[in-house]
């Protein structure tokens, strides 16, 4: 298994020649800041809509997280269907998509069990993603989404009251951070550039 990971990372590394400048050009620091601000706003709206009712606020936050998982699943599907990914990179994308599907299923089941309605995924055309023309574009875009998801879960951890939901969100955030580290490494970046997720 470790040899397989090394093979995948070596293949990704050999395919990627992205510099920090290219990453910023495609993903855009401003774009990431906008994404994070939007996610923070969604979490605050979920809390406000349920003010005075911690259980309802928690479920609204879980629905925001579920929306993120739907988007990640669709993004990895778009990347997989693009024809831009080399086989080892495609295998990793499919693995990550499968883990996002597990997150989706766990969140949806939790929301249903609590008597609420899970948010449905958008149509692919409604996500408004940038045009992806290369494997590098796909990986940079995936890294941007994973960074946004990890930060959104961090924000959710500050807001969720239910300890079981809090534990689940922390476990999912850890997996999002793993995805981000692999993608950063594949892009020639430090997999863990900071001691803290922001």
Poorly predicted runs:
1-38
Say how many strands there are: 0
The CATH architecture: Up-down Bundle
- Rg is 17 Å
Structural class: mainly alpha
Q: Can you tell me the CATH class?
A: Mainly Alpha
The coarse silhouette is globular
The major pleated sheet works out as: none
Tell me the β content.
under 5%
Helix content: over 70%
Describe the structure in your own words:
By secondary structure, this protein is mainly α. The protein has one domain: Ferritin, CATH 1.20.1260.10. Helix content is 74%, strand content 0%. The protein has helices spanning 2-15, 20-27, 29-49, 54-81, 87-113, 135-159, 163-186. α3 (29-49) packs parallel to α6 (135-159) and α6 runs antiparallel to α7. The model is unreliable at 1-38 (pLDDT under 50).
Task: Give a short synopsis of this structure.
By secondary structure, the chain is mainly α. Helix content is 74%, strand content 0%.
Blueprint of the fold:
Elements: H1 2-15, H2 20-27, H3 29-49, H4 54-81, H5 87-113, H6 135-159, H7 163-186
Helix pairs in contact: 1-5, 3-4, 3-6, 4-5, 4-6, 5-7, 6-7
Structural key phrases:
single chain, disordered N terminus, Ferritin, globular, mainly alpha, 198 residues
